[in-house]
């Protein structure tokens, strides 16, 4: 069996695909696996050794130059692309996986021959491959500034049924905390993601003054040497290629970095990481995929911004919002190695709701809850219950505002006043800001999307409402389940308290005297101990085969 993975993304994206590549190797241990990557990132082969059998380079930059620059024959690029396609098809691939999810990759895969294609690809004049709910979620939430509850690696793992090691596994690979070397990666590929060299200098000084046995070094690529050397001094620099940086990470106790490919390498190694999230960085989508990573992110309203634009503010607000003292506090926590108990948070709750929906879990079964429930969750639970009522209210309003299907069938043209109530519902949802995690995104898409006949609008809105109803049903079930667990814990506490209150006073006196005798006269070294005696709603049959959005 031969498998081709298409990964025409940036360096950091390729690095963070390592768990997926290893999972694919585990799924097909006897297969020959090739990966197609952009030519400028060929150095990644040194750090992904063993994950695939062959790296194939695609010179996209040169092909684009050939199409746009006068010194090239315009047919040259087509000839080069035809040669690449012919060479790939000669390998007779059985499967092709698209880890890229762009139009370019979809068109390219459309020209290739394979028995099975997984992920977005172009075929028969249409984009295909969004054949499961996870892939649709990926397609809908990784474009623009939409929030995602799941990491890029998680989404592709679930989309392609590739088992990957949980981030917790990285703890077993974590370097020894006896190391006394801390690494800074000060520069990113985008100026608006940079925290500022002056702040890194202050942080270095603070670490060395307060944690005198730690040595801070600066990782840098050869082209960054001059800029960083004038600030930190040549002796503090680790001028490294990708492979050398990988080795430095293995020998260090901590990495402080922005949104870089280095953080993804650190995540795979298991080194503790502090990620400073600035500019267009989105840690929920492409942060360091590791339980050994903590992030610090400003709360300024303009962040995260878009990738393609420069910072729109007069000053770098998101960087200014994060102080040196804030980052040093995280350095202290990370080096202490203290594991903090994690209680339920709003995002944890929403992740369970959405994963239950995307996995199409039967609601007759108990929903797994990967977080701790205690009395301190009461305020959050109350907030979640209030949000659920608001979401349900908007759902019922939209359901009532949708005219009957027969009304749409009779229409050749639809006027806005005929769906005015639906439009008002959408406006009220946006104004309320209650839909933080996109329950109604599909409804908004249906209302604003193009259609050739009014009946398509009806079918799209119906499909959206069916999805929303399913999500709210899961949300309600999960809240009921949490309340049941809380109630059970509370009753257990009352039971033991009542038993304690009814216990014999004589018994306590005997125990007290026994303990006193043991303390005064016994030579034993062991201690005394005592003990106290709704299912998912039916989904609408209409399914649209069109790709609504392509990243």
Describe the structure.
With 551 residues, the protein is of the alpha/beta class. It is built from 22 helices and 13 strands. α5 (103-110) links the parallel β4 (95-98) and β5. The chain folds into three domains: 2-132, Glycogen Phosphorylase B (Rossmann fold); 170-336, Glycogen Phosphorylase B (Rossmann fold, 3-Layer(aba) Sandwich), CATH 3.40.50; 348-485, no CATH class.
Summarize, please.
The chain has helices spanning 11-15, 18-27, 60-68, 74-89, 103-110, 133-141, 152-159, 170-173, 197-210, 225-232, 242-250, 261-269, 283-286, 317-320, 324-336, 346-358, 378-401, 405-409, 420-432, 441-448, 454-502, 505-521; strands at 2-7, 32-38, 54-58, 95-98, 116-118, 121-123, 126-128, 181-185, 215-220, 237-239, 254-257, 273-277, 293-297. The chain has 551 residues and is α/β, with parallel strands linked by helices.
Topology:
Blueprint: E1 2-7, H1 11-15, H2 18-27, E2 32-38, E3 54-58, H3 60-68, H4 74-89, E4 95-98, H5 103-110, E5 116-118, E6 121-123, E7 126-128, H6 133-141, H7 152-159, H8 170-173, E8 181-185, H9 197-210, E9 215-220, H10 225-232, E10 237-239, H11 242-250, E11 254-257, H12 261-269, E12 273-277, H13 283-286, E13 293-297, H14 317-320, H15 324-336, H16 346-358, H17 378-401, H18 405-409, H19 420-432, H20 441-448, H21 454-502, H22 505-521
Parallel strand pairs: 1-2, 1-4, 2-3, 4-5, 8-9, 8-11, 9-10, 11-12, 12-13
Antiparallel strand pairs: 6-7
Helix pairs in contact: 3-4, 6-7, 9-15, 11-12, 16-21, 17-19, 17-21, 20-21
């Amino acid at each position: 069996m031969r498998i081709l993975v298409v990964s025409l993304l940036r360096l950091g994206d390729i690095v963070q695909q390592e768990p997926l590549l290893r999972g694919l190797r585990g799924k097909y241990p006897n297969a020959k696996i090739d990966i197609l990557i952009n030519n400028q990132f060929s150095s990644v082969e040194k750090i992904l050794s063993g994950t695939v059998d062959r790296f194939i380079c695609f010179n996209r930059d040169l092909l684009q130059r050939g199409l746009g620059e006068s010194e090239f024959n315009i047919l040259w690029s087509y000839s080069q692309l035809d040669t690449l396609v012919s060479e790939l098809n000669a390998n007779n691939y059985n499967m092709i996986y698209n880890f890229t999810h762009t139009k370019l990759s979809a068109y390219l895969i459309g020209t290739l021959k394979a028995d099975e294609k997984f992920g977005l690809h172009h075929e028969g004049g249409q984009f295909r491959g969004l054949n499961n709910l996870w892939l649709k979620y990926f397609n809908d939430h990784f474009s623009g500034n939409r929030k995602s509850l799941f990491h890029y690696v998680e989404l592709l793992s679930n989309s392609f049924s590739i088992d990957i090691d949980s981030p917790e596994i990285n703890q077993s690979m974590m370097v020894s905390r006896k190391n006394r070397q801390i690494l800074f990666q000060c520069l990113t590929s985008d100026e608006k993601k940079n925290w500022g060299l002056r702040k890194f200098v202050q942080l270095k000084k603070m670490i060395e003054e307060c944690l005198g046995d730690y040595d801070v070094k600066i990782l840098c690529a050869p082209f960054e040497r001059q800029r960083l050397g004038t600030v930190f001094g040549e002796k503090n620099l680790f001028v490294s290629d990708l492979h050398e940086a990988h080795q430095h990470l293995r020998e260090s106790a901590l990495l402080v970095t922005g949104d870089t490919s280095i953080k993804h390498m650190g995540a795979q190694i298991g080194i503790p990481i502090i990620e400073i999230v600035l500019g267009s960085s989105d840690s929920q989508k492409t942060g360091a995929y590791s339980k050994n990573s903590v992030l610090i992110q400003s709360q300024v309203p303009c962040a995260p911004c878009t990738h393609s634009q420069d910072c729109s503010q007069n000053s770098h607000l998101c960087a200014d919002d994060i102080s040196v003292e804030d980052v040093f506090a995280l350095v202290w926590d990370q080096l202490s190695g203290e594991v903090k108990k994690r209680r339920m948070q709003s995002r944890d709750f929403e992740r369970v709701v959405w994963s239950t929906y995307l996995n199409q879990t039967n609601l007759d079964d108990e929903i797994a809850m990967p977080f701790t429930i205690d009395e301190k969750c009461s305020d959050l639970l109350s907030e979640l219950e209030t949000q659920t009522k608001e979401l349900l209210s908007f759902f019922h309003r939209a359901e009532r505002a949708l005219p009957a299907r027969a009304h749409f069938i009779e229409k050749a043209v639809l006027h806005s006043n005929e769906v005015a109530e639906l439009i008002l519902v959408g406006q009220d949802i946006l104004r309320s800001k209650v839909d933080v995690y996109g329950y109604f995104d599909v409804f908004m898409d249906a209302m604003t999307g193009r259609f050739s006949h009014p009946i398509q609008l009806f079918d799209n809105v119906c499909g959206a409402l069916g999805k929303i109803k399913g999500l709210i049903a899961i949300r309600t079930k999960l809240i009921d389940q949490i309340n049941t667990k809380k109630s059970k814990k509370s009753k257990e506490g009352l039971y033991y308290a009542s038993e304690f209150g009814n216990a014999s006073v004589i018994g306590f006196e005997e125990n007290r005297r026994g303990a006193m005798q043991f303390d005064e006269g016994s030579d034993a070294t062991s201690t005394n101990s005592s003990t106290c005696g709704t299912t998912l709603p039916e989904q609408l049959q209409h399914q649209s085969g069109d790709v609504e959005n392509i990243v």
